[in-house]
Design brief:
The structure is a single chain. With about 200 residues, the protein is an alpha+beta fold. The protein has 2 domains: about 1-40; about 65-195, Coagulation Factor XIII, Chain A, domain 1, CATH 2.70.50. Helices cover about 30% and strands about 35% of the residues. The protein has helices at about 1-40, 55-70, 105-110, and strands spanning about 80, 85, 90-95, 100, 115-120, 125, 135-145, 145-150, 155-160, 165-175, 185-195. Strands 3, 4, 5, 7, 8, 10 and 11 form a 7-stranded mixed sheet that branches. Strands 2-1-6-9 form a 4-stranded antiparallel sheet, with no helix packed on it. A hairpin with a 2-residue loop joins β7 and β8. The longest helix has about 40 residues, at about 1-40.
């Protein structure tokens, strides 16, 4: 019986070697195809490229975005009512040039801030003081601790019709003209308004 068992092991060796070589061959093929896929994605010039230069308007926008980070300090928001009343903004977290800072949340930033009285329903504008508008500008109002999105129209919004204190948080981001997933910089800020009725 021992001899038969040895014979059985000996006859399995070629089968094991074949399986081993098939596995190695499969892994090598997968590695080669993966490398080929990765390298084909690294070509900076697409195969269907016509080698045309960008239009002047695109070039100007791209150049302005590049200059944005080179020539500008962190944008300081200017918030004011339609009638010209300034509303102070409190700086939040940001990443600009090679500096990033992480601050508390909007509600914590606004603790103890003096509120500015504004007529309910009045239009309020937000300007970031840059020569290039942000690619993304979002605004939220905090109602009972929950962030509610506020729609902006050309950087302006209308104060709610309800009297009382309104807490806001905003986020602005500039992206690379070549890739919208690459951020050139971002900033956030918060402000508080007390809505009042006309006397």
């Amino acid at each position: 019986m021992v001899n038969m068992h040895r014979k059985s092991n000996t006859s399995n060796i070629p089968l094991l070697q074949i399986k081993f070589f098939n596995t190695i061959r499969t892994l090598t093929t997968l590695l080669f195809l993966s490398t080929l896929l990765i390298l084909s994605g690294c070509n900076p010039t697409p195969s269907h490229s016509t080698n045309k230069t960008a239009s002047p308007s695109t070039t100007n926008a791209n150049q302005a975005k590049t200059e944005l980070k080179q020539n500008q300090e962190l944008p300081t928001p200017v918030i004011q009512t339609e009638s010209g009343t300034p509303i102070p903004a409190i700086q939040g977290s940001y990443c600009w040039e090679s500096m990033c800072a992480d601050y508390a949340g909007d509600m914590e930033l606004l603790e103890g801030q003096v509120t500015v009285s504004v007529l309910v329903g009045e239009n309020i504008s937000i300007h970031l003081g840059t020569n290039v508008p942000p690619d993304e500008l979002t605004l939220v109002e905090y109602v009972n601790g929950v962030a509610r999105p506020i729609s902006l129209r050309e950087g302006s919004f209308q104060l709610a019709q309800e009297k009382g204190t309104h807490y806001y948080g905003a986020f602005a981001r500039w992206t690379s003209p070549q890739n919208s997933q690459v951020s050139l910089g971002d900033t956030s800020f918060a402000f508080v308004i007390r809505g009042v009725e006309k006397k």
